[in-house]
Design goal:
Pathway: Cofactor biosynthesis; ubiquinone biosynthesis. GO terms for molecular function: 3-demethoxyubiquinol 3-hydroxylase activity. This is Ubiquinone biosynthesis monooxygenase Coq7. The protein is built from seven helices and no strands. By secondary structure, the chain is an all-alpha fold. The protein has one domain (about 5-180): Ferritin. The structure holds fe (ii) ion (2 copies). The site of one fe (ii) ion has 6 residues, from α1, α2 and α5.
């Protein structure tokens, strides 16, 4: 495995795990929203379908880049379900605050990757997926009635970063530093 393929493989691993977490979040929120916020169900179902296709598309690039899913997928499943359930139980505004916080955190990571990736196919895929992630942020921002739950947004942004760090055992941070230092995929 060359150094270059190794960076592509690491990007794929963290992104694939993140999509797995997003699937858990939206799945848990859909359960809670049936009672707490039925008007959000069409959006939540559509977002869930997007996240499933994102996970499959990152997975599909792994074999040619010697990549493997992260070994800590359960962390994403458990963490995502917890975030989805907590926000779901708190109701409509909290669900939207959660979407905004998670998607903004993901967006920042994808931005860094797009800036530095020279693996064309991977970069195009990330750009493509980012368009749908942006639509999730836009919906959440447009639908929120106020700017409440600021504490929840901060807590969830922190939890998302922590999940990313834990699942990669710190590799996400090293990767970001290498990308910023000019390492190319
Ligand atoms: Fe996604
Ligand atoms: Fe998303």
């Amino acid at each position: 495995m060359t150094w270059n393929t190794s960076i592509a493989a690491r990007i794929l691993r963290v992104n694939h795990g993140g999509e797995h977490g997003a699937i858990s979040i939206y799945s848990a929120q859909i359960g809670a929203a049936r009672l707490r916020a039925p008007d959000l169900l069409p959006f939540l179902n559509e977002a869930l379908a997007h996240e499933r296709s994102h996970r499959a598309r990152f997975r599909a690039l792994m074999p040619t880049r010697h990549g493997k899913p992260c070994r800590m997928m359960w962390i994403w499943a458990v963490g995502g379900a917890a975030l989805g359930l907590i926000s779901g139980v708190l109701g409509r505004e909290a669900i939207l605050a959660c979407t905004e916080a998670v998607e903004r955190t993901v967006h920042r990571h994808l931005d860094d990757q797009i800036r530095w990736a020279s693996d064309e196919e991977l970069r195009r895929l990330i750009q493509d997926i980012q368009i749908e992630e942006e639509s999730h942020i836009d919906y959440a921002v447009a639908q929120r009635k106020g700017r409440g739950f600021g504490w929840l947004r901060h807590a969830i942004a922190w939890a998302t970063e922590t999940l990313i760090w834990l699942s990669t055992r710190g590799d996400s941070e090293r990767l970001a530093r290498q990308l910023a230092a000019g390492a190319h995929v």
